[in-house]
Amino acid sequence: xxxxxxxxxxxxxxxxxxxxxxxxxxxxxxxxxxxxxxxxxxxxxxxxxxxxxxxxxxxxxxxxxxxxxxxxxxxxxxxxxxxxxxxxxxxxxxxxxxxxxxxxxxxxxxxxxxxxxxxxxxxxxxxxxxxxxxxxxxxxxxxxxxxxxxxxxxxxxxxxxxxxxxxxxxxxxxxxxxxxxxxxxxxxxxxxxxxxxxxxxxxxxxxxxxxxxxxxxxxxxxxxxxxxxxxxxxxxxxxxxxxxxxxxxxxxxxxxxxxxxxxxxxxxxxxxxxxxxxxxxxxxxxxxxxxxxxxxxxxxxxxxxxxx
Length: 308
Fold this sequence. Notes:
Helix content: 25-40%
Strand content: 5-15%
Order of helices and strands: HHEHEEHEHHHHHHHEHEHE
Oligomer: single chain
Radius of gyration: 20 Å
Structural class: alpha/beta
């Protein structure tokens, strides 16, 4: 299929998320989820000649959307290595970081990537096709208890043990190689009225496990907290409760676990000031144009002047 910036990914909350960065014309910014480049182009439109933008993406397909601009640097890497790459480029402080944590439209729409149960395709789900285990590896090689944990922790599925048991039984007869093989193995466990929703949660859980998404997010947020200059902004779009909870915890307490630390006077010790206490969500018009934006939540925080 032909991949263009427009078809790769429709940027969600583009104006709102970049507004949240309060872009300074001469500042240094990072877009850790380049995708089709929609958010990056919006940031560049607000930068002056001295501004810099570093954009990360580990998917080889995203490289076709690279922007020809002297102020722009594309980093072919998972954003978990943010700190390493900024050190490599000699960047000690950044003025803002944007993350659109959703899976690109391209990943769901490209049947061969195996992200969606809408297509019968190899059970892959890797963001980086050049490395790592596939979803097929997970469902065929994990023991039953470990598989149940994946569905419970990352899909929040109450039927996690039954799902794991059904998969173990199916793979004993033959390897589960495709999305349809997996769907067939677990279909009897889903009630008709919730089948699509619960199937989506199961696929989400596998995708998170395959790509180590929660570990990567934690590492990226830790690095961003250290790299942001006083007054720098963190603008993050989330799509499911697990990542949203982690982002909210970091912005409110400075750590992914949400552990509140207080000074002698009872004031919460956190490196951030929350900019929007109420999450920003897409307008009805945006949801109509792009239904996948329906679950998006935007959170913005600013690095305190007195933060270390």
